[in-house]
Amino acid sequence: MTPKIDWPEGKDFAFTIFDHPDGDSVETLEVVYSFLRDLGLRTTKAVWPIRGDGTPKVGGATCEDEQYLKLVLGLKEQGFDIGFHNATYHTSTREQTTRGLAGCGKTRLMPTIWLEFPVGCSRQNNFRMLKKAVQQGRSERRGEANAWVR
């Protein structure tokens, strides 16, 4: 039996958008987020805090771009959630992740949501790993260069 969820304000469901940073630019963000704001929607905007030192699979702006960071901080002030989508636009080592998290603190951009997809893993496998970690009361993968911790 599925437990009943008590949604805010007695609603029957919730709808959310988690916008990945793939292909982000200042120009596209300004257009999309002014539209969402004007509709009264508040979504989650995922960001990459730092420029990577590897070749991006897709690429997009990072918070090391001053104009992009200013726009993202403005979104946060307007009530949009900010999500951490890995440290940069490619798989990140622990050191890169640490640098990315430190970058969040320097910019006053502490994300409220965290998302990481290891490159080369299927979404189904990611879900299994996350489910197992939650069931075991932990959220980490030990012994890997790309390990994530709670």
What is the count of helical runs? Answer: 4
Task: Give the SSE string.
Answer: EHEHEHEH
Percent helix among the residues?
Answer: 25-40%
Counting copies of identical and different chains, the oligomeric state is single chain
Describe the structure.
With 150 residues, the protein is of the alpha/beta class. It has a domain at 18-118. The chain is 34% helix and 9% strand. The protein has helices at residues 26-38, 66-77, 94-106, 123-135, and strands at 18-19, 44-47, 81-85, 113-115. A 4-stranded parallel β-sheet has the order 1-2-3-4. Helix 1 runs parallel beside helix 2 (66-77).
Summary keywords:
9% strand; 4 strands; 150 residues; alpha/beta
Record the SSE blueprint:
Layout: E1 18-19, H1 26-38, E2 44-47, H2 66-77, E3 81-85, H3 94-106, E4 113-115, H4 123-135
Parallel strand pairs: 1-2, 2-3, 3-4
Helix pairs in contact: 1-2
Entry summary:
34% of the residues lie in helices and 9% in strands.
